[in-house]
Amino acid sequence: MASKLVLMIVGDFVEDYEAMVPLQILSMVGHNVDIACPGKRAGDTVATAIHDFDGFQTYSEKRGHNFPVNVNWDNVKAESYDALVIPGGRSPEYLQLDDRVLGIVRHFAETEKPLAATCHGLYLLTAADVVSGRRCQAYPSLRPELQRAGAIWDEPSEKLDSVCVDGNFVTAPAWPANPAWMREFLKML
Q1: How many C-beta atoms surround the C-beta of residue 155 within 10 A?
Q2: What is the pLDDT of residue 60?
Q3: What is the 3-state secondary structure (H, E, C) of 100-152?
Q4: What mean pLDDT is predicted for residues 1-23?
Q5: Is the four-CA dihedral 13, 18, 24, 29 of positive or negative sign?
Q6: Is-contact 131 146, C-beta < 8 A?
């Protein structure tokens, strides 16, 4: 398998398991992952959040780790990358307001390069207007937004450990799906 250059877009309070685990999986099999964040430089970090399913009506949130950024945001050029990973967490709530982020997402959608998004990361796909007619999974609370954007909702498993593949999109509902999500993404790479 040839090594690929993968871009991961993160921001403060990205979901810890949805950033850390894919980074480790992709690195373990020999891919190079550039972790980029608007306004940050190589050597900076972002704070992560750990979301858990503790039996409440929604997930709980705890402070996670400091996750390293290893590339200067200003140097990111979408055309240089073979694939894109978009973790969930809180960061997609504000990253969806960044026009440059949305341009990068559109590049991967339009060029049909592998694009993996999970949980709330699909906010970036709806904001970039690239989901119309595409089957997607996300955290269930994103279903109305995805449907308003024209996506075809693919109901996630009750345990949130499923995955949906549609063309170059690999989407999943939350970190319990990391094994399935990354397995399907690796097949594309």
Answers
A1: 11
A2: 76
A3: HHHHHHHHHHHHCCCEEEEHHHHHHHHHCCCCCCCEECCCHHHHHHHHHCCCE
A4: 96
A5: negative
A6: yes
Residue written as tokens 């990358």? 81
The encoded tokens of residue 69 equal 């950024």
Q: Which residue type is seen at 178?
A: N
Burial class (CB in 10 A: 0-12, 13-18, 19+), 75: exposed
Q: Please report which helix (H) or strand (E) contains residue 183, including its range.
A: helix 178-188
Lookup result for tokens 């949805």? 18
Domains in the chain (CATH in brackets) are 10-188 (3.40.50.880)
Query: CA 127, CA 149: separation in Å to the nearest integer?
Result: 9
- The reply to whether the predicted model has a pTM over 0.90 is yes
Residue type, 182: M
Instruction: Specify whether the CB–CB gap between 152 and 66 falls below 8 A.
Output: no
Q: Are 63 and 47 in contact (CB under 8 A)?
A: yes
The mean pLDDT value for 150-170 works out to: 97
